[in-house]
Design a protein that fits this description.
Layout lengths: L4 H11 L22 H4 L4 H8 L5 E8 L5 E5 L11 H13 L6 E6 L3 E2 L2 E2 L3 E4 L8 H13 L4 E2 L3 E4 L32 E9 L2 E7 L12 E6 L6 E5 L4 E6 L6 E7 L3 H15 L9 E2 L6 E7 L3 H11 L2 H13 L7 H16 L20 H11 L10 E2 L9 E8 L2 E8 L8 E8 L1 H5 L12 H23 L2
Parallel strand pairs: 5-7, 6-8, 8-15, 11-13
Antiparallel strand pairs: 1-2, 1-20, 3-6, 3-16, 4-5, 9-10, 9-14, 12-13, 17-18, 18-19, 19-20
Helix pairs in contact: 3-12, 4-7, 4-8, 5-6, 7-8, 8-9
Length: 487
Amino acid sequence: MRLTRRTILTGLLASAAGGALAEAPATSLRPRARAVDFFKRALPTGDDLVARAGLGAGKVAYVVADATTGEVLESRAPLLPQPPASTAKALTALYHLDRLGPDHRFSTRLLATGPVVNGRIDGDLILAGGGDPTLDTDGLARLASQLKDAGVREVAGNLRIWTGALPNLHEIDVEQPDHVGYNPAVGGLNLNFNRVHFGWERKGGDYQVSMDARSATRIPGVAMARMQVVDRSGPVYTYARGEARDDWTVARGALGSNGSRWLPVRFPGLYAGEVFQTLARSNGLMIGGPVLRADAPEGDELARVDSAESRVILEDMLEYSTNLTAEIMGLSASKSDGDVETLAGSAARMNEWLKSEMGLRSVALEDHSGLGDDSRITASDMCRAMVASGPDGALRPLMKPFRTDDTTIQVAAKTGTLNFVSALTGFIGSDDGRRPLAFAVFCSDIDRRDALSMAERERPAGGRAWAGRARTLQRALIAHWNTWYRT
């Protein structure tokens, strides 16, 4: 090759480490174009964000995928089984929608076992539950009003309750404190999310206490749940299960001047029966005697109230994360395939459905709400369920928006929180022409959670700060994925 001025200069450019040239080059020098994702590579990685989160010995697992194709775009510990907490409710929603559909309703009915003669039922009146998780005191008042409008003025027999539409369970999770309202009994006849309102006010040197079934318009008192104020330093509450009554005590020193809280009900059918009897009497209906149990929902229907459609109940369940609703929606879905007696048995039935219909591989849930911390699922399986439901499927519209620091990022998700457990799953992106993403993030410190005593579980030391750091990490990961993968 003949050496020319141009070839010499080209060789110098190729080998120079930045030295000045004696003469200008024959062609204009331009900087080499940066890679399209150069600015992305200057940002912290997912591993960087996890390291910065400061979750101590806690473990973090996540998967983000194309919500349409299922292509996994990024993951960390994708096969590590983690407690899903309340993100399990998203799976329960999918299960219920598949087995019973979005238009399913629950009915609560009044049945007469004898004829109505001159306004008098010659027999018993049965309050028959259909499993409605949303029945409240106002709903029972509507039943009493319908009965009055039907011309009934008296019941010769007793008021009976039927609770057999679903299994009757004392509580959701045995590892929770007795007094927390988010862990009530579950059954076929439920009222006010199976919680009773406890109020107190100091009167002189003592306290006036009340136990009632209040709603938006009514405050009927109840006798099947009783409270006694006692002198002791702790515990704050104790519970004793009577034959047909909830007996509570509370430490005097913990009350202050006045206040209130919701306590769980362990006899929800009797609770609903007592409240209905009070409301019926306020309508001038003569229903005497104790509330008894019915063996079957047999008789002529005199009144009924129906719940909203399942899609509405599920949307509220995902927004407010109501454990009772989740368990009933899951139990009712399981019962569509035959009788089920236990919560664990119903959860096992849902696990098999998730494997056969949604393609999950190692899901092992012990309930439908995520309250039990022995439930396990991998980030891979949870993300797979989101992909299987689809970015345009029935689940996403039921999920509530999840706010990030960047308000332009559209996220629909379900959160999940237990002590030292924080989870998030859902979808990133709206109908804007860019790639929609499905994701699951699990953060947990199981050893720290397991070390808590029963008394520490309601408000553990350091729990709020740890949960705040986990949520900060989740928001940072969403922003990171939105930048990297929403092309």
